[in-house]
Amino acid sequence: MAKGRVVYHKQPPADAPRSVSTAGARQRRRRHPWLRLLVAVLALAAAAGAVYGLWLLHPVHNDRLLAAFAPQAAAETEPAQDAAAPSDAQTDAPADAPADPNQAAAVPPAGDGRIVVAVDPGHGGVNPNIGAEDFGSEANGLREVDITYATAQALVDLLQADTRFSPLLTTDGSAYLKPSERGAVAKAAGAQLLVSIHLNYDASAEPSGFECYAAPPVLSTNAESVRFGKLLVDAFGQLGLRIRGNNGVRYLYYDANDNKVILESTDTTPRSDPTFTVLSSCGCPAVLCEEGFISNAGDMALLAGDGGCQQAAELYYQCICAYFNLEPAG
Q1: Is the same domain home to 43 and 99?
Q2: Most buried of 21, 40, 89, 296 (most Cβ within 10 A)?
Q3: What is the CATH number of the domain that holds 222?
Q4: Buried b vs exposed e over 65-96: b needs ≥16 C-beta within 10 Å?
Q5: The model scores a pTM over 0.90
Q6: With contact defined as beta carbons under 8 Å apart, do 175 and 97 qualify?
Q7: What are the tens digits of pLDDT across the range 216-233?
């Protein structure tokens, strides 16, 4: 042990006088015990407030509050959306109108024994993203929305005449619905199959032919979507339309830069890149059809006009029956 002075501190006698400052401090502590309690309570309240503030600022709870107090302002954020054609995408923006729940409510539920089929015309209504009517592609005096809606309505009429089916239009064309909202209408109605009808476009009049886009491999509905797509390819090929790609059934993805990537259905690699949201949001096997090119006179001779739209609708109807292993009525 190092040398040095060791000092022992002894307890002073009980009757030793206390200093004035020490006695006063103890007296003050005895006189105001409530002050310490008040400070403790205030500190606890401040800590609780800070914890609650952090909880409130968490995105999950913030979204819930926004949904509760401003449901119309809640926006759906999505990547690039459905295209009028592979060269002309629609934009799914927060300003778009909400889906109309009455559209799904008017459809008999799948529990009544009938098969619910969703028919998506693909266009129509004023799109706030472009500030104009969503006509889709236009060429040679024709508008995509006129042809696709007439075809969709004719298909719905055929399905309604067949008591085994309960069809619905995802939109009547009077109000614009985002692709994801049209898919949600189909899902809310319990759709067992969805077909989305579109036309392709190219600045040149030469490109032509039929192609369709199935729900991609990452979705559980992929295999059945491809099966339905192959039925459509066979039917429209027999109509006289050229089949595009390897076998007419393809996948479409949007990459990180929002560019479209088209792959053949023989590429079965599951990919996380987004696809057409009407396909991914409907909850059932689904195919988006590009029937032909509105810019090609030969395609439009087969698909446009009352006769062409009715002819295409009958092909869709026959393929739907074949998909469900049914014979067409009548």
Answers
A1: no
A2: 296
A3: 3.40.630.40
A4: eeeeeeeeeeeeebebbbbbbbeebbbbbeeb
A5: no
A6: yes
A7: 999 999 999 999 999 999
